[in-house]
Amino acid sequence: MNRRAISVVRAGALSTVQDLGRPGHAHLGVGRAGALDEPAHRLANRLVGNPPEAATVETTLTGCAVRAHGAVTVAVTGAPCPVAVDGRPAAWGASVRVPDGAVLDVGAPTHGLRAYLAFSGGIDVEPVLGSRSTDVLSGLGPPPLADGAELALGTARPAPPGADALPVPGPARELVLPVLLGPRDDWFTDAALRTLASGCFSVSPASNRIGMRTEGPALERAKEGELPSEGMVLGAVQVPPDGRPVLFLADHPTTGGYPVVGVVPERWLPAAAQAVPGTPVRFVPERL
């Protein structure tokens, strides 16, 4: 093998290629996709000298392991987790040199859910609509990583001298999410809005890249029936027939017929992306 690449030794529960996504195509029925924890993605790229839009690998819950073909500089960010190169412990949250033929192993997070692996030069798969991101809902972009798969790397840039200071986030005991009410909060009773503000919700194990599902009390409808399908935005809190709120994340559908009680501002979504099942969730409704 003459080109720089990585091959997958252990794909993990769900590992996908992600960049900053493909915004601007909702009118075509194509969602944004992209890294769920965008700050972690950007930092990993910065540590290895990549531009922010370079593609990284996003892991879920169990990490992954890859073999380097050609020496490569790597950084692992996001959920804190053990990192090893050929079985020897390596730094998390800093640039690490991985020799040709060595195996980089990223273990399960000690807390949090998703880690980001940046490789000098970025993952060089074919872009689709301007993005290399995997969209698990539409199937656009490269497939999720599988054992034995090979991913080419782009041309590396010099890594920046030294490393950024990187405070380690503490485990989230509670996920607090501001919710700007609307556009369909009038489809719910006043009691339902009080429940949204005070109910004991938690992150459901059924959550995925499409949305963070919740467990807890049901929100009572004031109106029966369903809406005609309408546009859905990132951060929308949609309420399906079971009454449990669903927070839409990067791979969300572009339209939907269930009412949206409110929208969580985008800057709060990385915390939701790192919330493990069972994490308590507190919604803080606000009116514009």
Q: What is this structure, in a nutshell?
A:
With about 290 residues, the chain is mainly beta. The protein has helices spanning about 40-50, 190-200, 270-275; strands at about 5-10, 15-20, 55-60, 65-70, 70-80, 85, 90, 95-100, 105, 115-120, 150, 175-180, 200-205, 210-215, 230, 235-240, 245-250, 255, 260-265, 280-285.
Describe this structure in words.
- By secondary structure, the protein is mostly beta strands.
- It has 3 helices and 20 strands.
- It has helices spanning 38-48, 190-198, 269-273; strands spanning 5-10, 16-18, 56-60, 64-69, 72-78, 83-85, 88-90, 95-98, 103-106, 114-119, 150-152, 175-181, 201-203, 211-215, 230-231, 236-238, 246-248, 255-256, 260-263, 280-286.
- The strands form 4 sheets. Strands 12-19-16-17-14-13-20 form a 7-stranded mixed barrel. Strands 7-6-9-4-1-11 form a 6-stranded antiparallel sheet, with no helix packed on it. It has a 5-stranded antiparallel sheet with strand order 2-3-10-5-8, with helices on one face.
- A hairpin with a 7-residue loop joins strand 16 (236-238) and strand 17 (246-248).
- The radius of gyration is 20 Å and the shape is elongated.
- The mean pLDDT is 94.
